């Protein structure tokens, strides 16, 4: 849904220095040698492997839903919490394939979009239309980091309290999605002004509160309506079955808690996916890369909090069409081919604590 935070432009000397560095980064020219090397070294890696996509997604979903059932039926609180953590992480991995759906050619992995929506997207109330048609704008050369980017806010230049608000919004996402599909969807079908608001403001996984989505057209419109209807029927049924006692309230609350944990994990990952230091200027591809983050091995925890290739987010901004299973190989090739002074190495960071500390220190400079 949306995160609302106000950017105060009054700056201390230290904060002004951060803003100055951000402005300088926005003016960086493209490093043509790096861009050419990245493209040349990875040409053979651009084909998605359907077996990997299906096996990974299905295994993640089975583990996630299985752990969710155990969390609901567990005889003790401790076992319920442990199973809930496993469920949240596994379902987070399964849900993260929505990112791949926005980049791969669907004919390359037949049936995957439909299968993912039926197994993951609709049950978790995040059907693929909420990302397709939105995320691609984040990769548009002239939109990244601007007011027209649905997935960007200058978080590093905002007040310190915007970070906990940013996370809190994600914690409430499961309830917001239930309202969106169980209440707003059927109401908006008969109230045209409400429908325009729902489409523009509540139909994308975005963090920029000023972004307004355009209505879908052509084949995308038909797909949107089918997926939205499916999610609406599911949300209404879930609430009705809980209200009538068919689904125990405990089970419903555990489901909401697990999906809230999933959403918070993703929001923390989003918090460190970029440096968030751009104030609206258009940026070159190299500048976008330097404003983005890779967390490569030997760090191990990114496998959990940045799954499905998201640990290579900066590399992804260089090569957005590269399938997730090829990003590790691509990173190793590029790292080995480019010398230590290459811009490429400046996009690599140690891990989550360092990145959270970096953005937190930046916001603390704001008075």
Automatic annotation (TrEMBL):
The chain crosses the membrane at residues 114-131, 160-179, 231-256. Residues 80-342 form the Fatty acid desaturase domain. The keyword Cytoplasm does not apply. Keywords: Membrane, Transmembrane, Transmembrane helix. It comes from the Bacteria. CDD domains: Membrane-FADS-like (cd01060). Pfam families: FA_desaturase. InterPro entries: FA_desaturase_dom. GO terms for biological process: lipid metabolic process. This is Fatty acid desaturase. It comes from Sphingomonas panacisoli.
């Amino acid at each position: 849904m949306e995160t609302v935070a106000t950017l105060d432009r009054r700056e201390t000397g230290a904060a002004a220095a951060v803003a100055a560095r951000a402005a300088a980064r926005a003016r960086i020219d493209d490093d043509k040698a790096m861009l050419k090397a990245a493209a040349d070294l990875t040409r053979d890696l651009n084909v998605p492997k359907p077996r990997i996509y299906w096996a990974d997604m299905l295994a993640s979903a089975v583990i996630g839903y299985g752990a969710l059932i155990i969390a609901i039926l567990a005889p003790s609180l401790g076992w319920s919490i442990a199973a809930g953590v496993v469920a949240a992480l596994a379902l987070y991995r399964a849900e993260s394939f929505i990112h791949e759906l926005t980049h791969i050619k669907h004919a390359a992995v037949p049936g995957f979009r439909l299968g993912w929506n039926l197994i993951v997207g609709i049950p978790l109330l995040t059907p693929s239309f909420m990302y397709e048609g939105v995320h691609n704008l984040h990769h548009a050369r002239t939109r990244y980091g601007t007011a027209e980017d649905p997935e960007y806010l200058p978080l590093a230049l905002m007040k310190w309290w915007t970070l906990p608000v940013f996370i809190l919004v994600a914690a409430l996402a499961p309830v917001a999605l239930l309202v969106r599909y169980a209440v707003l969807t059927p109401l908006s079908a008969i109230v045209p002004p409400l429908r325009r608001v729902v489409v523009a403001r509540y139909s994308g996984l975005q963090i920029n509160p000023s972004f307004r989505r355009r209505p879908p057209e052509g084949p995308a419109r038909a797909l949107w309506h089918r997926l939205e209807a499916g999610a609406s029927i599911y949300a209404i049924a879930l609430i009705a079955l809980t209200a009538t006692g068919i689904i125990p309230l405990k089970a419903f609350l555990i489901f909401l808690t697990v999906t809230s944990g999933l959403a918070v994990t993703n929001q923390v990952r989003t918090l460190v996916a970029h440096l968030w230091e751009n104030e609206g200027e258009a940026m070159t591809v190299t500048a976008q890369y330097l404003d983005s983050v890779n967390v490569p091995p030997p760090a191990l925890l990114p496998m959990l909090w940045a799954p499905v290739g998201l640990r290579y987010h900066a590399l992804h901004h260089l090569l957005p069409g590269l399938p997730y299973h090829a990003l590790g190989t691509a990173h190793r090739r590029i790292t080995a081919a480019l010398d230590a002074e290459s811009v490429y190495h400046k996009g690599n960071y140690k891990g989550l604590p360092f990145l959270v500390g970096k953005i937190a220190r930046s916001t603390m400079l704001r008075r």
